[in-house]
Structure formats: C-alpha cells, structure tokens
Amino acid sequence: MSKKRHVVAAVDEVPPGSRKHLNLAGREIALFNLGGEFFALGDKCPHESGSLCAGKIVGLAEADTPGHYRLSRDGEFVKCPWHGWEFDIRTGQSWCDPTRTRARAYETAVAAGETLVKGPYVADTYPVRVEENYIVIDV
Amino acid sequence: MNAPLVDTSVSQRLGIVDCDIHPTQRSVADLFPYLSEHWREHSKSIGPHIRQGLAAMQAYPRMMAAGQRADAYPAHGGPPGSDLDLMRRQHLDPAGVETGMLVALSKGGMEERNPDYATALAHAVNDWQLHDWVRKEPRLRAGVVVPQEDPAFAAREIRERSLEPAFRQVILSPRSIEPLGRRRYWPIYEAAAECGLTLGLHPAANGANPSTGGGWPTYYMQEHYAFGTNMQSNLVSMVFEGVFERFPRLKVALIESGFTWIPAMCWRMDRHWARMRHEVPHLKRPPSEYIREHVWFATQPIEEPENAAHLPEIIDWIGWDRLLFSTDYPHWDYDDPKYCIRFRMTEQQRSQLFRDNARALYGLT
Ligand code: FES
C-alpha cells in the first residue's frame, strides 16, 4: 500500500516537551516535540499496549557504581504509563531490550503551509494556512 | 520478549473473570455513611494507624504514579479505582470482563493497628463495596474484608456477609502477626469453610513483620519480589500446621504472588515430608496433595520468561484447573488480557484460565 502524507498539526500546536495523540489511517500514533524536533512513535507500547502518549517524559537514571547516581538525557525518553518501560523518543527503542522491544518509529517532517496548499500532498481535512508551518507524517 | 500470540478478540469473545480488581475510596469520607459518629470523628481527627510510622506514606515509594497505572486517574480528581464509570470504560468493557472480583485493600482493617477502629473500618468497607460498587455494577462481586488479628470478629463478619450473595470470598493479608497457619487464625478458616467462601490472600503494602525473612528490604523492587516469597511462607505454614486437614472444605486463592514457584516448592515439601513426617503426624498425605486440592493461583503479574513456552509446561505441573486470570486494575503492574498471555493453549485451557476455573471456584453463574 502506498504511503500517504498526513498533515497532523501546526508546529505551534505541539510545543517542546509536549505530545499529541494521532489516529492516522487506523493507526494510533504518539507525536512528541523533543527540543523543537518532532518524532512519532506507534502509540501502543510493544509490551502490553499501554498508550505511550499517556506516559511521562523522563531521562535515564544511571550509576557507574552503587551510590553514584546521575540523570542523563533528560526529557529524551517516554515511560509507558503501565509497567514503565522507557522508550527512546528518537528511535522507539526500549532502554532494557533495544533490539527486540521497540515502538514503531514514523518519519516526520515540517512543511510550509504554502507547499502543502499547492500539493502534491493532500492536506486531508486539516485546515492548512499558507503562512504557517505544519508537521507532516507519511503513513 | 517473544512475539506475542495476540488474539485481541479473545477476552471479548470469551467473557473473562478478572480475579483482582481494586476499588478505592475517593477519600475516607466515602466510608462515612457506613461508620458511626464516633469513628467518623476518629477518621477526621486521628486517621489511620497502620503498622508503620508516617502512615500517609507508602512504606516503599513506587516508581509509577504511586503504584497506579498512570493513565487511570479520573479526570475530575480522586485516586485510580475510585470512579466506577472510568473502571467500566477503561477496563470492564474493553477487557471483556464478565465478572470482576473486588479486592478492597488498605482501609478495612487489614493493616489498621487500632483493633476497634479496624473492626469498624472492615464492616464499613464491606457495606461500601456492596452499596457503592456491586449494587451499581452487576459484573462486580465483593470480597469480605476482615480485621484478621481479631478472628472472633472476623468470623462473625464472614458469617453475616455470607448471607449476601454479592460476597464471594474472604480477603486476608499475608503480612499477619503470625504465619497464617497458626491456630489463632483458625476461627476465620472455620467460618469461611462453613460458609463456602474462598479465602483470597492478597499482598498488603504494610505488615506486622518485615516482608522478607531477611528483614526489611531497601527498594520497592525487592518489596514487590517479596509478594511471592511471603506467600510461600504462609502457604507452607498453612499446609504444615494442618489447616487443610482440619478444614477439608477450605479453598484458598493466592492473588498477585506468581505461580511458577509452586512446582519447585511442592517437590521440596514432599521430600521433607517423606523423611521427617513424624514431626507433623497430622499430615496424612504428601504436602503437594493438599496444595493441589485446596489452592488456586491468580495469574497477575504473570511471569515473563525469555521463552514464553516454558509457562504452559509449568502449568502442566500445577494443573490447568487451578489458574485464575487477574489484571490488578488499576495498579501499575496491570496485565491486559489481550496481550499478557504469550503462549499457546487449547480452547479448553483458554476457557479454564480466563473464565471457567474462577466461575467454579467462586460459584459464579
Ligand atoms: S504495556 Fe508498556 S510497559 Fe507494559
């Protein structure tokens, strides 16, 4: 099946640190703004299907040796609201089992309203205005 | 993790019995209609005195939303498990729950140290389950909450509640003052057996003794692991002290403590019995036979071995007729019936595990 480009939100609607739940062509997708960049993951956690969109944005607690703790990569992971698996928002990889347990990652892009209005992409039912920028996902 | 053998329609098609659902009061005020004026005032001015200092805190802070599913907070406030409509929308309907067994933790005398307040709370929580939950939602059934360190009161409460068919079991905490096989608790077993109510043992967050034989653990991960070991010591106690010899009709459900350890524990117990049986001559049969006959096991939190096919092998040892499906809604370690069973079963085993065993054990129709 060929992919279709979906306009999912105006850039301003999803500020840094926030997320948005999407339903695109029957797929549930969690869209995140990580420091101004947009990343989209399949919303259903690969473990038992908790909604990643409802998860907390966290960093990694790490320690080189017992008693010496630090937090790294703050804000770069989403923690499933059920059992707490941590997924890298950029890649969908889980921290504990990165090769086998991963959330599906979708390509996102930002496109100017102008180009969207002209096509070749169809803007679904999302009202696009020439002067704004939009987040688009190919599904 | 293995590729799930997901058949998302199975629970809807089948209709499942969920043997572990936790209702919670929005605040203690929800119990006020069922408490006397004295205990209402006590609740307001003094409050609970569970067996730890800083009673408003959890003994082991949990990494997830105070131990709850982070998406289970009602929009208009209150803790997870306090809103029946949300429970319906988020759990009972989508999970295809035909019957849900309530396990009312915390308030209710399980952990309360003031003995008179404990009895008042237990009685109130039982009224609350009946009026605020079961009467409003016909899929739910209640579990009689008892202050187990007052067995005489507990036995009276069991006999009284057994007349109301909404109550299908008796809930006990395995964090008791003495191991549960000790005779001080036998009046509870006598009443339960006489009334045909199953005894549901469910881990409690607080207890009279450290949760591990080695003392107080440090982290919640250790505490959570101790649910299983704590249950093991209590089950061993009940078997060796002769509870099942004395009450041959007693049935016990172990909730939220795992089941993969059962075969190994039974092998050990049987070997000890074969060699040292004269210390417990009241046991007429190998210990494993009492367990096989009297004990059921709820699945959540289901073990997740690397190769999920190991689980059915273990269940072959335990007995497919002894497993009860449970989710633990709305707690963080919720098992979703659509995804959590990752091994193949026959249709018959599937119906047993998800529904029929619980129907038979709890006399559900
Ligand atoms: S469903 Fe996400 S961690 Fe289990």
Summary of the model, kept short:
The complex is a heterodimer of chains A (139) and B (365). Chain A is mostly beta strands. Chain A is built from one helix and ten strands; from the N terminus they run E-E-E-E-E-E-E-E-E-H-E.
Describe the structure.
The complex is a heterodimer of chains A (139) and B (365). By secondary structure, chain A is mostly beta strands. Chain A has a single domain, classed as Rieske Iron-sulfur Protein (3-layer Sandwich), CATH 2.102.10. A four-stranded antiparallel sheet of chain A has the order 2-3-4-8, with no helix packed on it. Chain A has a three-stranded antiparallel sheet with strand order 1-10-9. Chain A contains one helix and ten strands, in the order βββββββββαβ. Chain A has one helix spanning 113-118; strands at 5-10, 19-24, 27-34, 37-42, 56-65, 68-79, 86-88, 105-106, 108-112, 133-138. Chain B has 365 residues and is an alpha/beta fold. Chain B has a single domain (10-362), classed as Alpha-Beta Barrel (TIM Barrel), CATH 3.20.20. In chain B, strands 1-2-3-4-5-6-7-8 form an eight-stranded parallel sheet, sandwiched between helices. The mean pLDDT of chain B is 92. Classes of the chains: A mainly beta (139), B alpha/beta (365). The site of FE2/S2 (inorganic) cluster has 10 residues of chain A, from loops.
